Every structure is written in structure tokens, then in C-alpha cells.
Amino acid sequence: MPSENWLQGVCVKTDPGFGLYVHWPYCAQKCPYCDFNSFARTPEDASVWTAAYVAEIERHADLVGPQTLRSIYFGGGTPSLMAAETVQAVIDTAQRVWSFSNDIEITLEANPSSVETGKLTDFRSAGVNRLSLGVQALKEDDLRRLGRLHSTQDALTALDVARRVFDRVSFDLIYARQDQTLADWSAELTQALSFDPGHLSLYQLTIEPGTAFHDRFHRGNLKGLPDEDVAADMFDLTQDMTAAAGLPAYEISNHAKSGMQSRHNLIYWSGGSWAGIGPGAHGRLWVEDERIGTESFLNPATWLKQVQASCGTQKQTVLSAQDVLNEYVMMGLRHIDGISRQRTNDILGFDLAIDPDLVEMGFLEVSGDQIKTTAKGRPLLNQIIERLLV
Ligand SMILES: C[S@@+](CC[C@H](N)C(=O)[O-])C[C@H]1O[C@@H](n2cnc3c(N)ncnc32)[C@H](O)[C@@H]1O
Ligand code: SF4
Fewer CB atoms < 10 Å away: N or C end of the chain? Predict the structure, then answer.
């Protein structure tokens, strides 16, 4: 194994550490663009959920044994709708069964409604130390068209409170929205950067199958979406403006000041291990030299019932070397630091063949142990990965 320390003294490529992902499947309302495993429903009794999460963490601890946890991530759905006691119980149980690294990152995704903003101090007391706020847009009409329940003012208030409560706050915006011009996005991103965030997630709107937007789009009722060229210009502008503001992209959609990158996502992007608990959560674990993939039952009621009966995992597979390589390349090349050549060799048992055209045409850079995409290659990531994994 190589010993390069590519990020902040952490050998992320070879030892990205162990994390815990906790999925909360409920939202106040289903947004028309969203294909996450989330449901607009009032959850069952909080104590039932607390008991289920605790049982799943204990079961995973039996499976993987002692670990040092570097990160916990509460994702959703809308985890800011969770009872603070449930969040507390998850954190306490994780600490009881695994040890925490000194710099453990504990992130919770929050929506900017006033009710949830009022709970932020409770989440902080429970041990959450990083908040990811779903702002999505800074324009009233666009928030409405995205089906959001919050106003711009709610988002600004939530951001303000979040920054007083947490040292590390990130927020999400979606661009390439209906009727958005390049100049509109430039003005909105300027406003976002004026809040001096440490971390920003900037996603290009994608029309996902199975969503209300997908139906509307295919019926011709989702008008005014920027064409591919404008969307590509928006991506380029995003790279330039965030870099100039000191938050360069460190992944396709993620931008951060130095030292403020999400450590949890780094586990995914660098082939680390994590336990995934909650409806629909996926995990990747090393158990006695085998890479195990886990998938939890998708439906919340089914997941709860299964956990109460025995366990929430619906599918557990041992991944082949090719599967491990595919995931490592697909996830790793999203990150600006790319992948370790030695690591690909360790997985495969032989040298990964790299199409020289990709390097000659300036899409991929190979230097020493490191294989990474260039600025020119990054927008073509999917095509590059296809060529690498033939
Ligand atoms: C799990 S989701 C949402 C977290 C939180 N419930 C919220 O809505 O703010 C994480 C992020 O993915 C992004 N997202 C979801 N669906 C998307 C889509 N179709 N296109 C682009 N971004 C999307 C949104 O920015 C969202 O904040
Ligand atoms: S975007 Fe967030 S609030 Fe909206 S449905 Fe998806 S997970 Fe729920």
C-alpha cells in the first residue's frame, strides 16, 4: 500500500477510515425533482425509530468488530425532522460500540423551516458538529417552482442561526433551473459567496426518472430549462467563481475552503468503509479481507418491521475484485485528487490499463501514483470512466 498523504495529513487514499451513514426517510413534503428515498409522511413514534437505529448499529458492530469512527452522517429525507433524542441515541450508541477519532465529523442535513431551525441547538447538544442546509435557491419564485416549503428569508435566518450554533456549516444550491440565465446564476452565486461559507454543494438540476419533474418534462410542461450548452457554461462559471472566492471544487459538485471538505464523503470517494443504516441505506464494509456490500430494506415500514424481527439488511453481497475496482474508479475520479494507481493494482492484482488517448487529449493526468481528471476532463467524467473500465 502506498503512503501518500494527499489531504491534510490524512492518508485518505489508503486509510480513509470508517464512517456511519444514518438514513431518515421522512420529509414535510416531497419535492418534485427529488428521487431520494424520502416520503411526505408523519413518522411513527420516535422511540420506535430510536430503538431500531440502536439495534442496527449494535448489529453492525458485531459484524465489523472494533473500529475508529471518523464520521457520522445523518442524511435523508429530512433528518432535521428527527427527534433530537433519536440523534443523541445514535451518537451515544456509535460511541459505545466503536471509538471516536479525536476529530470526528458528525453532519446532519437540515431544511430551513422555522421549526427545524429552532431545533439546531438541540442537535448541537446531541453531538452534531456540522450542518448541511438545503437552501436550493435564493429566489422566491424559484423556491416555489422547486416545491420548497421555505422562503428566502427562512433560508437566510436558518443560515444565520446555523452559523452561530455550528463551527462548520455547508449549504446546497441547485442551478440550471427553469428560466435561469447565466447572468441570473452568476448573481445568485455571488450572493451565496457573500455569506462567506466554508463549504458549498452546488448541484446542476437533473431530471430524475420517477419524479414529478420527470413526468412534467416528458409531457412538455417543464418549460424554460437551460439547454446543455448553457448548463455547461453554468458549470464552468461555478468553477471559476468558487475558485476565485477561495472555495475551489474538490469534487464535481462540492466546494470548500482549505480544511473544510466533508470528511464523510471522502470515505465514499476514496474507497473507505461505512455502515449504512436506515431505510434504503447502502453500506460497504471490510469483513475478514472481504469487501461486503449491504442494502437495507427501502420502505420505512418494512425496514422497521424487519429490524424488529431480525435485521434491516435486505441484501448482503461479497464484492468481486472487479466490482471493488469499478466502485473505486467511479467514486475516486469524482474527487479532485483522483485515485491511487497502486491501490488499483492492489485490488486487481495487475496494472490498470490506461487508454493513452485520455492522457494525450488532456482529459486525464497520471503523475507518480496519482491518476486524476483535469479541468477539461471533469465535465466528461462518465465517458472517461467508461473508457477506463472497458
Ligand atoms: C438528500 S437531499 C436533501 C436534503 C434536505 N432534505 C433538503 O431538501 O434540503 C440532498 C441534496 O441533493 C440535491 N438534489 C436532490 N435532488 C436533486 C436533483 N434532481 N437535481 C439536483 N440536485 C438535487 C439538493 O440540493 C439537496 O439538498
Ligand atoms: S429534496 Fe429534501 S425535502 Fe425535498 S423531498 Fe428530497 S429529501 Fe425531502
Answer: C
- Please state whether beta strands 254-256 and 199-204 pair in parallel, antiparallel, or not at all (unpaired): antiparallel
Domains, in order of start, for the chain: 18-268 (3.20.20.70), 321-390 (1.10.10.920)
To which residue does cell 458528525 refer? 106
CA angle centred on 249, ends 245 and 253, rounded to 5°? 120
Once rounded to an integer, what is the mean pLDDT over residues 281-293?
A: 91
Ligand 2 mutation pick, 24, 42, 78, max ligand atoms within 8 A of CB? 78
Distance (Å, rounded) from C-alpha 21 to C-alpha 262?
13
When pLDDT is cut at 50, 70 and 90, the band that residue 42 belongs to is confident
Burial of residue 310 (CB within 10 Å: 0-12, 13-18, 19+) is exposed
Q: Which residue has the least CA distance to atom 6 on ligand 2?
A: 34
Q: In the structure, which protein residues have their CB atom closer than 6 angstroms to any atom of ligand 1?
A: 27, 33-34, 36, 75-76, 78, 109, 111, 134, 136, 172, 174, 203, 205-206, 208
CA distance 165 to 382: 39
Asked whether 76 lines ligand 2 (CB < 6 A), one says yes
199/247 Cα distance (integer angstroms): 7
Q: What is the pTM of this model?
A: 0.94
Placement of cell 433560508 in the chain: 155
Reported as a single tens digit per residue, the pLDDT across 99-110 is 999 999 999 999
Distance (Å, rounded) from C-alpha 318 to C-alpha 287? 10
Which ligand approaches the C-alpha of residue 176 most closely? 1
Ligand index nearest the alpha carbon of residue 112 = 1
For 24, 138, 150, the CA distances from 35, given in Å and listed in that order, are 14, 22, 19
- Best mutation site among 26, 34, 81, 133 for ligand 2 pocket (most ligand atoms within 8 Å of CB): 34
